[in-house]
Amino acid sequence: MAANLLSSRLNSKAMQTVLAFAGLIALVILFSFASPNFLRASNIVTILLMTAVNGILAVGITFIIITGGIDLSVGTVMTFGSVMAGVVITMLGLPMVIGIIGAILAGAFCGFINGVSIAKLGLPPFIATLGMMNVTKGLNLIVSRTKPVYFTHLPVFADIATKPVAGIPLGVLIFFATALLAAFILSKTIIGRYCFAIGSNEEAARLSGINTGAWKIAIYSMSGGFFGIAGIVMASRLSSAQPALGPGYEMDAIAAAVIGGTSLSGGEGSILGTVIGAFIITVLTNGLRILSVPQEWQMVVTGLIVIGAVYLDIARRKIK
Q: Does some domain include residue 7?
């Protein structure tokens, strides 16, 4: 009886979030003792800005993973959004607002194509999004003519990410606002409920009258829109759209969602957990850099943490 009660508590969504938050606090304490530079105000701002982009990407991919899918095109779609914003604002000379909308629509369109490939053509999510990763990787270079697109003529564009509001960079506030919007969608709307239904048992959802194909397309499109927002924040932070940027961001986004308790098997996850997971990834990366740990070892540590998080998820499901 006691063992069953303990198992139930460990498997609860709230407990997964608490454990992730405890891990974040432990990392902060560890790096604070390891280096006096870690808790400096300038480094805290750096951590927040680093988390903003990866956090928005992770929030977007959380919806996809909850459905039991995956998206490997996260990073290159983000870059595609920033490149399209550069084309609209710099090359076409249109207003900045149009460029921002263009970036979001570009990301949503890529998500739409992914959704159609998976839901209508029957491609596995891994293959469909791997193809999209290569397509957008090439398009980024073609559209930008293999050169960065700079926004230096438009100083206000840089304010999107870096302008302080009550001491907090605006890009970070955009991340928090995006997370709140995503949490509302996931918990209070029909698309959120269908995410869990499809991820828990897609066949049962289909037999209950849910048009799983159409909803998958909607979910992938929505997530692509989030990736487009991340592209705007990244471009603003760099004051340029870097066409070669993107590959590798998908791993950090997936890692953040998984560490935050989103199950790769589908049917489980929360935006709060993903936000905590994004901070864990950033704090870990930032702390290792401050300690002068070589980048290759940083990648090893991050990879091991992802493997550990997935293993714990599998073990937790076996206990159920």
A: no
